[in-house]
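Quick log. Single chain, no ligands specified.
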Amino acid sequence: IISGIVAAGLSLLLPNYYKSEVLFLPSEVNALSKSIINEGDRLDPYMFGTEKDSEYILEMLSSWQIIEQTAKHFNPREHYGLKDTPLDNEKMVLKLKKNIKVKRSDFLGAKLKVWDKDPQYACNIANYMTEQLQVLRHRMKQAKADSILTCLSASRDSVKKEIMILTDSLHRLQEQTNMYYPHSYNDRFAQELSKQVAAG
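-> predicted structure:
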């Protein structure tokens, strides 16, 4: 009886915390055009993602980049009553991170839970982190696309250089022998092939 009374008294002294929750169900493919146009992959655009796709979302939501960006946007220093010092800035981010829980759901989804004394504050943080997840994914794709573009541009320049070398060699051969005409070779070959086909 005494322990029950003590527990009830402590529960009345503790502040109420509210939970805002967002559930993510990752998609199997990010580009719908890939699943529709490319017949070789056999991807269904309506299918949800696998366990690996869910783990990607968990890693990004737990990343320091999203947590720090959220702290800068909402400035929890005033909300939590912290001083404006470098040490308290770190405490502010750690306090915010402590109130944020990210875990996997039972059906390969990802759950984001934000706890706070103010329900609207928790809701705003959850929605903002959802937006920042999309921003971070876009930045990651953009960085990968830039790398691919750099590699393709270097490969294209190399091929162009090889074509120029071959073209110069053919022109020099034409000037030396007067027997080979690289610009009209395809047309002459097609004409001769047509004659041979017609002749049986």
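The first strand starts at residue 18 and ends at 24.
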